[in-house]
Amino acid sequence: MITDTLKPPRVALGTWAWGDSGETGNGYFGSNFTQAELEEIADKAHTAGFTLWDTAMVYGMGRSETILGKVLKRYARSDYQLSTKFTPQAAGAGGNPMEDMLKQSLANLGTEYIDLYWIHNPANVDRWTQHLVPLLKSGKVKHVGVSNHNLSEIERADGILGEAGFRVEAVQNHYSLLYRSSDDAGILSYCRNRSIPFFSYMVLEQGALNGRYSPETPLPEGTNRAQAYNSILPQLKALTDKLAAIGQKQGAEIPDVAIAWAIAKGTTPIIGITRPSYIDGLVRATSMSLSNEDISDLEALAGAANVNTRGWWEQEM
Description:
This is Aldo/keto reductase. GO terms for molecular function: oxidoreductase activity. Keywords: Oxidoreductase. Residues 11-301 form the NADP-dependent oxidoreductase domain. Helix content is 40%, strand content 12%. The longest helix is centred in the first third of the chain and has 14 residues, at 35-48. It is of the alpha/beta class and 317 residues long. It has a single domain (12-305), classed as NADP-dependent oxidoreductase domain (TIM Barrel). The protein contains 13 helices and 8 strands. Strand 5, helix 6 (151-162) and strand 6 form a beta-alpha-beta unit. It has an 8-stranded parallel β-barrel, surrounded by 4 helices.
């Protein structure tokens, strides 16, 4: 019943931080943006050919979706793709909580359909996966994926969708140099063998791998990410130094190399976009070529850092 194949971009644009209110302590990142600033980012992204935007209903409880919808009104709907998520843990008590959350997302985003709709977390795979089928049949959802699912949950979801003539068309998990659990658990090879696009999020570990932060200049106090990463920054120096050295040879910066690594591993990185200059980095990352030696050196240093960056919402894979 699938009429077309999902064509993943080389990089997707993340808007988790767009859900922050800008007030300290009210949001994960402590971010503050004006619509004009975000429109400048979107214009630069579209000019560069990056057109898949990833959000979720739970990013600021609708705030990220609403702001993104306003920013994208400037373009024809055919000029961009929308990726958003159903989060079981935030489901309402109505007769069909997934359909209710989708309706809210459609209203927030100002659109009639979602290009890629995810089940965000694997709470009761048997219960929730079947609810994707009527959404696919209605045309309000074009493609479906699962996020933060382990291998057996991905296989179970695929089986449920398969009974209705559909399939899991994408997988999205936390995947970075510091956190390769989807590799260790066989999820990446499973996706490769079945031509399922794998979307990697937190590739830059919320900024801990972008080279701007160090024990001397830690992540902004009062934010969740500072709490998660500031204590491990000393252990990351050898890795970020290597990222810088590889970048220097190719006219690239530290985050560009970390993103290029994720691309080289066969994944589509979802990169949080909060400044126009980040688009320049994506252009550099997508044109870089890392040698096998570069990749093995980076992975060895990442392993030697010996840190666990699994999010509080993530299960062991």
